[in-house]
Amino acid sequence: MAKRDYYEILGVGRDADAAAIKKAYRNMAMQYHPDRNPGNGEAAEKMKEVNEAYAVLCDPHKRSLYDAYGHAGLEGYTQEDIFRGVDFGSLFREFRFGFGDDIFDSFFGGRTSARRGRRRGSDLRYDLSVTLEEVASGVEKTVEIPRVSPCSVCNGTGAQPDGLEACPKCRGAGQIVKEQRSGYSIVRQITVCGECRGRGKTVKKACKECGGKGAVEITRKIDVHIPPGADTGYSIRVEGEGEVSADGLPGDLYVVVNVERHPLFERHGDDVYIQHDISFVTAALGGKEQVPGLTGLVEVDVAEGTQTGTVVRVPGQGMPRLGKRGRGDQYVVLRVVTPTDLTREEKDLLRQFQSLRQAGDMGRRGKERKG
Fold it and tell me: Does residue 291 contact residue 41 with C-beta atoms inside 8 Å?
């Protein structure tokens, strides 16, 4: 079944700001949350739909993909990708709905809770420039991505095998406890140890591979596929190719396409425009012209009496429609060029032409007066 429009689900316009989207989500959740509709399967399904719409529209990156390409812009995203970074629990506590702590867990089987204690690495972004011809047919590109990963020699500790010792400041506890008596009570303050950053150990002998940093920078070559019809801003997600956290969980890589400006063509969505010069003889008499296209020369019919600025449409010679069948169109904007290097013979012929035109005009005016 085709998915509904996310803006329609939340009942907001496409120009709605973040506050309006959050307010709309709150109202929908108040109406459809299962705690308020026990045993109502239809309300539960509706709440899942509302959650997904909010998860996309509250995230600027996912919202921009959806605005540009609709649901096709999020193809390849898993449910976990859609909901990544959306803290429904804090949102509900902020509005004090009185519902459970984590609505996301209630709908998706607590998938986040199992990983809550393990931190993912940061996502990476790579801006990739491609030509119009490349995205017209689709292209494979290899990108080199530098990223920081835990040192494989010391497993991220930054120390040699016997190079760790208990932190002298916290004595291996990883935290500092301060107690202060206030009357008959004792106030206890617990903070993370700043010396060992909560690890309880400090480096005595630094790892020779990473110099005690616990991490090294490596460069990876990654192949990415740019689909036919992609435009500037199109994003390709490469799962697991982001930074690796200390817990060993990698983030993702997002390759963002930038289509370079073309010397001949201007792109407008799936259509392309090109300006083409024709002689004043062809403009007057009509004829056929060979015009550059994205995949070779295309033939254009020039009508008699064509003027500068006339646009000729060539169906199906534009850009492929991203994720769909067919192509856009090519539009040829004609410009009549006046020669500046006429020979004496050519000038004489033009003067004869001018005389013929003047004589013809006088004859027509005479007939009009008699009529």
Answer: no
pLDDT at 116 over 60: no
Token digits of residue 181: 């008596």
Q: Are 257 and 226 in contact (CB under 8 A)?
A: yes
Among the candidates 187, 203, 219, a domain finishes at: 203
φ and ψ at 6, to 5 degrees? -60, -40
Q: Is 186 in the same domain as 297?
A: no
For every residue of 266-295, DSSP letters joined together read EEETTEEEEEEEEEHHHHHH-EEEEEEETT
Task: Tell me the percentage of the chain whose pLDDT exceeds 70.
Answer: 84
Give the domain range for residue 47: 1-117
pLDDT tens, residue by residue, 139-160:
999 999 887 777 878 877 788 8
Q: How far is CA 47 from the centre of its chain?
A: 27
Q: Could you read off the pLDDT of 34-58 as tens digits, one per residue?
A: 666 666 778 778 888 888 999 899 8
Q: Is the distance from CB of 148 to CB of 243 less than 8 angstroms? A: yes
Asked whether the predicted pLDDT for residue 270 surpasses 80, the reply is yes
Whether 29 maps to a domain, the answer reads yes
Residue after which a domain boundary falls, among 173, 188, 203: 203
| Shared domain check, 71 and 4 | yes
Return the HEC string of 64-82.
HHHHHHHHHHHCCCCHHHH
Band of pLDDT at residue 218, cut at 50, 70 and 90: confident
* Euclidean distance between CA atoms 233 and 241, whole angstroms: 20
Q: How many domains does the chain have?
A: 4
Q: 3 and 91 in one domain?
A: yes
For residue 252, what are the contacts with CB-CB under 8 A and spacing of at least 6? 81, 123, 124, 237, 238, 239, 240, 241, 242
CA distances from 128 to 69, 254, 257 (A): 19, 10, 5
Helix 60-69 to helix 41-57 angle, to the nearest 10 degrees? 100
